[in-house]
Design brief:
The protein has seven helices and six strands. Helix 6 packs antiparallel against helix 7. The chain is globular and about 40 Å long. It is an alpha/beta fold. A six-stranded parallel β-sheet has the order 3-2-1-4-5-6, sandwiched between helices. The two termini are 18 Å apart. Helices cover 48% and strands 13% of the residues.
């Protein structure tokens, strides 16, 4: 599945490595920082660009602050035309749980992975490492509802049912 990963910071490095480890080989890293972006792309054999192109990809991944609460809250990580051409939208921004990118993708009927889902899944794995106990899906959704509200919990429940 071809992908475009936007960003080149610490989370971008983790996501790019995970994609590579999972067998993704057809990807483009798009980053304003040419030095770190090119280095990240080269490390995994991906293409590099400093700007988004008109071409699309099946998987779009935002690992930038675009859409995060604060001054860039209304910013879209990808243009609607790219979202429309994609199959999956993945945004690591956790606050708000549904960024403009995620909302646009949901409106177009795309599969989404939100930053809240990322945080919850990381938290579950940390809990397991600390306690040796793996919570079931209902417990995970209940904890998410408590920490992040109904919308995030409902979205996570759908994601857990997909998995």
């Amino acid at each position: 599945m071809p992908f475009v990963l936007r960003g080149s910071g610490g989370m971008a490095k983790a996501v790019a490595a995970a994609l590579f480890d999972a067998g993704f080989r057809n990807g483009t890293i798009v980053a304003r920082n040419a030095h770190s972006g090119a280095a990240l792309a080269q490390r995994h054999g991906y293409r590099f660009a400093t700007e988004l192109s008109d071409g699309g990809a099946a998987l779009l991944i935002n690992v930038t602050p675009l859409g995060m609460e604060g001054p860039q809250a209304n910013a879209m990580a990808f243009p609607r035309s790219m979202i429309a051409a994609a199959e999956v939208a993945f945004d690591v921004v956790a606050q708000p749980p549904r960024t403009p990118f995620i909302l646009a993708a949901q409106a177009l009927g795309k599969a989404v992975i939100s930053g809240t889902e990322v945080i919850v899944r990381q938290s579950v794995e940390q809990f397991v490492l600390y306690t040796g106990v793996r919570p079931d899906a209902a417990q995970i959704v209940a904890a998410t509802r408590c920490a992040h509200g109904d919308a995030a919990a409902d979205q996570l429940a759908l994601a857990l049912n997909r998995a």
